[in-house]
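Schema walkthrough. Field components (list of strings):
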Amino acid sequence: MPVKSLPVKVSGQGFYDVSQAAQAMVHDTGILEGLCTLFIQHTSASLVIQENADPAVRHDLQRWMNRLVPENDRLYTHTTEGSDDMPAHIKCALTATSLSIPILNGRLVLGIWQGIYLWEHRVHAGQRSIIVHIAGDVNPAL
Amino acid sequence: MPVKSLPVKVSGQGFYDVSQAAQAMVHDTGILEGLCTLFIQHTSASLVIQENADPAVRHDLQRWMNRLVPENDRLYTHTTEGSDDMPAHIKCALTATSLSIPILNGRLVLGIWQGIYLWEHRVHAGQRSIIVHIAGDVNPAL
Amino acid sequence: MPVKSLPVKVSGQGFYDVSQAAQAMVHDTGILEGLCTLFIQHTSASLVIQENADPAVRHDLQRWMNRLVPENDRLYTHTTEGSDDMPAHIKCALTATSLSIPILNGRLVLGIWQGIYLWEHRVHAGQRSIIVHIAGDVNPAL
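Field assembly_structure (string):
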């Protein structure tokens, strides 16, 4: 089936690696050449591909983004859902809601330093939902 | 036919909801499982998925973006097309030109609070063009 | 074959037009209606669709982005790979890693002022890799 759900448990702001889960979903389809699209069903968490080697990259990225889009900015009028809510919506607008990654030889063609992350922008724990669409050829050479 | 045009009339800066139009285009194809891609043919208007409930979210998002990317910044050298033009190009680089959304049970799998918006970055009225590609299976279970 | 590699030589920060290369890859498939997805295999270079007319637009965009995400920000802890590395990762998070463009009449449906660019964020010369996935119908009317 080409459309599946990938639930992700989160425990507050930060990056949650879904690379292995996505690779496993591609593998299970048996598709060797094609396209995998991830879509996150939220407006306060987003998707990003970032370096998977030095955790300091993600640490700095989180701090930089929090400085660019701080809580309690006097500009905000949408404040009833918590001080982290409006910043989360802005961060989503600046990052990705969908990502499409080609499949070759049965695997996502991620670069060697690329990881796929759910980027949680809210401070509380919870569960997020990514919908994954996979299409392509099981026998591309035939 | 998988590729169709979705024209959108705009009346200046702001968010124009195209969720219902996109859902209707998906419905018309009869496709039950698949992928819908929206592509905007402009470099001064973009696409964004945002909260569809409280209009204050979009109001704050617009004001925040206008503060981040103001008109009449002395950095700009591209000024002949109006003071709103170069900010519009920058805003496009920071947001999305294409969005891909899976289709399940004949509908886009939007989260309950997600709306698809054309985000107009210029101040004048006009018409914008989104191209919609829809692919998938009419009878996925067969 | 739907998945191909598009190598791009770069000579430092800036925009590298891949529109013609992508159009040629679409043409070579013989596909008349479909979808072309570009995916960049890096976390310090990204993809962007921008105005292809006045080069001042890209010049201003580069300068604006360098001001928003400067080198040697005291916030950065990831500094061992060069002063341009952490800014490059942040710029990637703010721009696109994948772009999907519909194909109609055998061509990408780019707007008249739209060019597809690889946006190099690092200062040194090198080679970057974009993976291109193309799917669709050779004979859509049959």
